[in-house]
Amino acid sequence: MVSILTEEEVISPYDELMAYEYLYAVDGTSRGRISKDLSESGGLPTDAVTALEGLLPDNAKRAEVKSYVDSRLGGFSVLVDGTPQFPPGLRAEKSPLPVFYYRGDISLVDSRCVSVVGTRHQS
User: Fold this and answer.
1) What pLDDT is stored for residue 115 in this prediction?
2) Which residues contact 11 (CB under 8 A, 6 or more apart)?
3) Domain locations along the chain
């Protein structure tokens, strides 16, 4: 028998993407800090945003993040941890990624390949 999810149980990649970007918009944040916040709040970026409300960017910063992300949608795809499509190998990291941005064929993650990974603060 197939179970039917309630509206509250459905994970929205857009909502998780926006919540993750809001977390990154906090001054002085790091991947390790976000990972800690996520593990303390239940695992999803939306849960962390709810738990940290008041510590997050103000409405002007949120509008800036939303505009930035919305202008780039379609140029990449997003997978959210907790969904069946999320690559299991990414969960094994010390500071696991809650949201994975990618371009191309995600099925290649199951084969031997080379990837190019970017960073937010390159040197």
Assistant:
1) 67
2) 44, 80, 82, 83
3) 10-110
**Residues 6-15: tens digit of each pLDDT:** 666 677 778 8
Look up residue 3 and give its two tokens: 């179970």
> What does the pLDDT look like over 59-105, one tens digit per residue?
787 788 888 888 877 778 888 887 778 888 777 777 777 888 888 88
Q: How far apart are CA 72 and CA 32, in angstroms?
A: 25
Task: Give residue 112's identity as a one-letter amino acid code.
Answer: R
Query: 61 forms bridges with which residues in the sheet?
Result: none
Task: Report whether 57 contacts 22 (CB < 8 A).
Answer: yes
- The 3 state secondary structure assigned to the chain is CCCCCCHHHCCCHHHHHHHHHHHHCCCCCCHHHHHHHHHHHCCCHHHHHHHCCCCCCCHHHHHHHHHHHHHHCCCCEEEECCCCCCCHHHHHCCCCCCEEEECCCHHHHHCCCCCCCCCCCCC
Whole-model pTM: value is 0.62
Rounded CA-CA distance 36/34 in Å is: 5
The overall average pLDDT reported for the chain is: 77
